[in-house]
Amino acid sequence: MRKRSIITWLVAILCFVVLMIVTPAIPQSQEYHDFADHRKFLGIPNALNVISNFPFLVIGVIGLILSYHGNYFRLSLQGELWGWTVFYIGVAAVAFGSAYYHLKPNDSRLVWDRLPMTVAFTSIVAIFIIERIDERKGTASIIPLVLAGVISIVYWRQVYYFCYFVVCNLSIFGVLAQKLILGRYFDDLRPYALVQFVPVVAIPLMAILMPPMYTHSTYWLWAAGFYLLAKVLEAEDKLIYKWTYHVVSGHTLKHLCAAMVPVFLTLMLAKRSIETERQSLLKTWKISWVKVKETRTNDESCNYNFIDVSTTESQ
Ligand SMILES: [Zn+2]
Question: TM spans, by residue (predicted)?
């Protein structure tokens, strides 16, 4: 490993440690499990929130088939194939994890909802590193990034269980310690929030600023847009249920909207080709903006000439 890489890693670890020391723990709110739509259809509790995960399975399986069937996506690097494979496995697994959680929403089932989502998320970061920074580093980062995501969830839930066992079952500290220690230091979503937050910021930024290897880069931004919309729908679960006269809730729409993320990425994979002129989206936008401005200035000067000619003739 080069000196620069070591320094980057040390700075990143230091930032993480400082962040964990200076910020308070974020416990999982129990209100999160109280969704707007509890309706039961065909014997399935919370039916629409369960069924609306089905598109994840469809797009996950389609993506996996197309990745391997005659190299439909024209993936030229081995690391890309591994990265997209992990991504589509994560997407397909969301269907099972999320459906399992929504059948009976609680903390222990939420682990299975979040785990596949985190795998999909982190593999996307690795794919981005392969495509835009360095193939070798990106390929080597697939496993560590996915592991970081898994550890963030293990830290939130399993460390809590372990300490709960030690504190309560061995009865060293009693109820007071259970509240003070477990409430303060465990049941902590900070690493998970970080794993979610970093890709949300890093992916659109890298998509805009870094020269791509392939065409159709704007699809990344469409995917990011749908993800943000999904987050808004999730936050307004009850309000949307009220607005739609109890037809559909915000959380059900969130699932459908989030499924559009892999749909757009699959469309991108199907359509794109190797970029011959490697330039960032920002540069492309700048060039088109300058062209638009030039055309407008030319049009305006043509108009002036026309007005000049007509006034000269009338004189
Ligand atoms: Zn959900």
Answer: 6-26, 47-69, 81-103, 115-133, 139-156, 161-181, 193-210, 253-270
3-state SS of 82-98 is: HHHHHHHHHHHHHHHHH
* Distance in Å, CA 39 to ligand 1 centroid: 15
CA 19 to ligand 1 center in whole angstroms: 28
Q: How far is the CA of 102 from the centre of ligand 1 (A)?
A: 7
Q: DSSP for 143-154?
A: HHHHHHHHHHHH
List own/partner pairs for 21-24 with CB under 8 A and 24 or more apart: 23/190
The domain spans of the chain are: 3-212, 280-315
Task: Using the mean position of ligand 1's atoms as its centre, give its distance from the Cα of residue 98 in Å.
Answer: 6
Q: How many Å lie between the centroid of ligand 1 and the Cα of residue 2?
A: 42
The total of other beta-carbon atoms located within 10 Å of residue 295's CB is 10
**pTM of structure:** 0.80
SS3 214: strand
Sorted by sequence, the CB contacts under 8 Å of residue 198 that are 6+ apart come out as: 125
